[in-house]
Amino acid sequence: MTENTTQPAIPDRLSVDPSSPFYNEAVLQFDVGIRFKGVEKSNVEEYCISEGWVRVPAGAAKDRHGNPLLIKLSGEVEAYYRD
Fold first, then answer.
1. The sheet that has 39-41: what strands, in order across it?
2. Domain count, the chain
């Protein structure tokens, strides 16, 4: 059994929602870490490095489709692969 261990380049914008145009399954197969304003975040749903924002759930609230409501936070974003 052969595994593909080459990690693709981290995109500028990435989403974990499969219906998003910024969803990238090849990248999400690896453990991607996000630092926002120097603090590691584990609840990021979407990020954009060049525009400097992340989207995170706004508590337990849901939209009419049952998806979590997201808030957009602005600041320095760093994405990386965890070992």
1. 39-41, 32-36, 77-81
2. 1
Classify residue 79 by burial, with Cβ atoms within 10 Å: 0-12, 13-18, 19+.
buried
Residue 71 belongs to domain spanning: 13-81
Residue 4 confidence class, pLDDT cut points 50, 70, 90: low
- Residue 8 in any domain: the answer is no
Q: What is the mean pLDDT of the chain?
A: 93
CB atoms inside a 10 Å sphere around CB 45: 17
User: Whole-model pTM?
Assistant: 0.86
Structure tokens at 9: 């380049």
